[in-house]
Amino acid sequence: MKMCEDTPDKSGYNLVPTGKAAFYLHSCPVLTWLYLHGQLVVAPSHVYIKSGKELDAQRFSNKRSIDLTPYGKADWVTGTQTSPVIHEGSRGKRHNEPKRAQLRHYLWAAKQLYNIDAVGELHLKKGNVERVEPDHEAVEKDHARLLEIMNGSMPEPKKIPICKGCTNKDWCWQ
Ligand code: SF4
Fold this sequence. Notes:
By secondary structure, the chain is an alpha+beta fold.
């Protein structure tokens, strides 16, 4: 069964949560549901995807990573093997909580897979860096919520600030 960052593993009522699922959970319930059901279509030419790929190529090439399979893939890692710092880059100006949740999920995954207590650093615009501490209890609540959303019907869209730049807005608000 395929389990990777882009495709959450689903078997019956189980779910192997990924970093992207945690990201969508803190972004929008509709995006979360679509992602968990493999129905989130993002055109590769979309401006945010394109600029994100370019940014990733600049920031993360030649950097060490950590294998968090099947729970996702962090951008890069520094520190020692027993005390790593897991890094994520964010392109957002204001709405950074989804990225914090994604990073907390990776800290949880490092604990699950290797029993190591990693900390996170979120790299924001203009070189700002924010420390993200582990919160495994919050992450496990996120995972329970993801399972609920996956097993429910698609939530009704509600207008939120990120709708403006969302690739799905034509579908939600036609
Ligand atoms: S347009 Fe808004 S409600 Fe619809 S998926 Fe995007 S963020 Fe969610």
